[in-house]
Amino acid sequence: MYKILCKDGSAKRGRLETVHGTIETPVFMNVATVGAMKGAVSTEDLQHLKTQVVLSNTYHLHVRPGDEIVKKMGGLHKFMTWDKPILTDSGGFQVFSLAGLRKIKEEGVYFNSHIDGRKIFMGPEQSMQIQSNIASTIAMAFDECPPHPATRQYMQNSVDRTTRWLERCKKEMDRLNSLDTTINKSQLLFGINQGGTFEDIRVEHAKRISELNLDGYALGGLAVGESHAEMYDIIEKTVPYLPEDKPTYLMGVGTPANILEAVERGVDFFDCVYPARNGRHGHAYTNHGKMNLMNKKYELDDRPLDETCDCPTCRKYSRAYIRHLLKAKEMLGLRLMVTHNLYFYNSMMEEIRDAIEKGCFKEYKKKKLEQLEEEAK
């Protein structure tokens, strides 16, 4: 059950009640692709980093260790010892981005595993079955992720197929949730809006999938090469045609600035690998700009990454020490950086929720963007 608590312009402050707990929105989902955060961050750590939801991937868990194994271990929550919500991506993006050789047919996609080359088939029913075995809180519908750029005709055909696949996903999800052997019989299903940068295709697709009365709706196929301005324009034009009383999820996005812009346009859910990936490469997000810790000027800097931050890293460790760990390729350096960046993102989402509640989101956004554009000292 999703409820809008208040609005500030188009920005929504909501709450989604799930079988695994409450999600306060807008929310950033921390990406734990194979059931773990990269950077040696444990689920116990995530509890201290204000994490509400983790996102894991259907395709990756299917090829390793295998979704049947996850089911035998009691589902992903039990397997990774995480008791809060989990969203599983359907595997569609990975099938279309990782699998070099693939055949797209009406029944689904035939492709080779990027791990060992074995032949795999995945269609709407298979994706739902895998996600049911994983027993995530929220399952994503299986869709085609068209390339960017794509011709109008290709995009239209692709979107039409995605709609047909979505109807099959819904039917299969209903069946799975009725079985006695299903671990999570309250699994939610989010549909995915596609259409590239073709505004009319996006809007028409949004209207069509809204009729299916799903638990939530996502915007897919963005942040794949189009400009930020194009992405914001598509969000602005499409979101009004998705049900306002359901969560809206912008997939794979993005930078703090991207999130602020999308919240202003009515988006609730976000995920991105940036905080973890950039952290592992020595880049820290701070309230005074982005910092490259590999810079020599931090060699003798005894300050925390961000003097305004209360994360476990900033409470104890200096820039100089973390820089040393990164240069020495010590795992602790990656862990401390990723921990800080995740805390930064989750804290920013708290600030966003608070600003919407107070009716001052526009002012908050302006100030935050100015801070993010500063040059870290």
From TrEMBL:
Name the InterPro entries for this protein: ArchSynthase1/Queuine_TRR, TGT, TGT-like_sf, tRNA_ribo_trans-like
Which residues are listed for substrate binding in this entry?
Answer: D89, S90, G91, G92, F93, D143, Q194, G221
Q: In which pathway does it act?
A: tRNA modification; tRNA-queuosine biosynthesis
Q: Which Pfam families match?
A: TGT (PF01702)
What cofactors does the UniProt entry give for this protein? Zn(2+)
Q: Does the keyword Metal-binding apply?
A: yes
Query: What's in the keyword line of the UniProt record?
Result: Glycosyltransferase, Metal-binding, Queuosine biosynthesis, Transferase, tRNA processing, Zinc
This entry's comment on the bound cofactor is: Binds 1 zinc ion per subunit.
Domain of life according to the entry:
Bacteria
User: Which residues are recorded as binding Zn(2+)?
Assistant: C309, C311, C314, H340
What Gene Ontology terms for biological process does this UniProt record contain? tRNA queuosine(34) biosynthetic process
- The annotated active site, in chain numbering, is D89, D271
The family database entries (Gene3D superfamilies) matched by this protein are listed as: Queuine tRNA-ribosyltransferase-like
Q: Which GO terms describe its cellular component?
A: cytosol
One annotated GO molecular function: metal ion binding
Domain tRNA-guanine(15) transglycosylase-like intervals? 10-372
Q: What is its EC number?
A: 2.4.2.29
Reactions that this protein is recorded to catalyse: 7-aminomethyl-7-carbaguanine + guanosine(34) in tRNA = 7-aminomethyl-7-carbaguanosine(34) in tRNA + guanine
Q: Which residues form a coiled coil?
A: none
Q: What NCBIfam families does the database record attribute to this sequence?
A: Q_tRNA_tgt (TIGR00430), tgt_general (TIGR00449)
The family line of this record is: Belongs to the queuine tRNA-ribosyltransferase family.
Supply the PANTHER family for this chain: QUEUINE TRNA-RIBOSYLTRANSFERASE (PTHR46499)
How is the subunit organization of this protein annotated in UniProt?
Homodimer. Within each dimer, one monomer is responsible for RNA recognition and catalysis, while the other monomer binds to the replacement base PreQ1.
Q: Which purpose does this protein serve, as stated in its record?
A: Catalyzes the base-exchange of a guanine (G) residue with the queuine precursor 7-aminomethyl-7-deazaguanine (PreQ1) at position 34 (anticodon wobble position) in tRNAs with GU(N) anticodons (tRNA-Asp, -Asn, -His and -Tyr). Catalysis occurs through a double-displacement mechanism. The nucleophile active site attacks the C1' of nucleotide 34 to detach the guanine base from the RNA, forming a covalent enzyme-RNA intermediate. The proton acceptor active site deprotonates the incoming PreQ1, allowing a nucleophilic attack on the C1' of the ribose to form the product.
Q: What is this protein called?
A: Queuine tRNA-ribosyltransferase
Gene behind the chain = tgt
